[in-house]
Amino acid sequence: MLAPTVDEYSGVVEEDAVIKRLIKKSIFLLTPLFLIGCSSDDSQQTLEQQLSESSKVRIIHASPDAPTINIAIDVAVASNNATIAIDDAPITLEVGKFYTAIANNNLANIDLDLILDTPRRIATAAQVRIFHASSQTPSIDIYVTSDGEIADVNPLATDISYMTGDLSQTGYMLLPAGDYVFTVTPANSKTIAIETELLNLEVNKIYTAFAVNGETIGASPILIFADDF
Prior knowledge:
By secondary structure, the protein is mainly β. The protein has 1 helix and 19 strands. The strands form 4 sheets. Strands 1, 10, 13, 14, 18 and 19 form a 6-stranded mixed sheet that branches. Strands 2, 4, 5, 8 and 9 form a 5-stranded mixed sheet that branches. Strands 11, 12, 15, 16 and 17 form a 5-stranded antiparallel sheet that branches. Strand 8 (98-104) and strand 9 (111-117) form a beta hairpin. The two termini are 15 Å apart.
């Protein structure tokens, strides 16, 4: 099962801020949300100027049992029970940088991880990175093949564990253009936890995926695709 793709950033003007994870009372939707901030002198700046002087942040909601969430910066939370603040996450953003904030883990232990993205493309290779954001899945190995057959193949990335606060990842892996199947297994095992369809990768493109908890406790993990997928 493949989750929706996420491929947009929104501008955040503040360099230092506090992200508040807010949960609305509504049904769960596994969809991207976007984080938008304002500077203290917005009235004197055009939108184009604000964006050129901003950090870029995108939000991914990957907590399977959480309802729809709002992500806000430096705002007071109303005490009318319409919105429940989960907690605060202090962050530091740099102007001109790109970030992904992913809300992951189950609601009882929900976690928000901030990831620095590097959107610089390489003309001779596809760049692929995969994050382990599934709290219900042990350490994983990742195989990249042309046909999904992994019995006699060594994993491209090994023993990637789930961590709170700083998600483990493969880093950007360089691959030639071509068609690939990505297979995720428990570490040191050939038992398949996730297997993609045949995916076409192109040079000069960036591909990011997050292995996250399934939609119910105990369900198999799924992938959320971002960037050029």
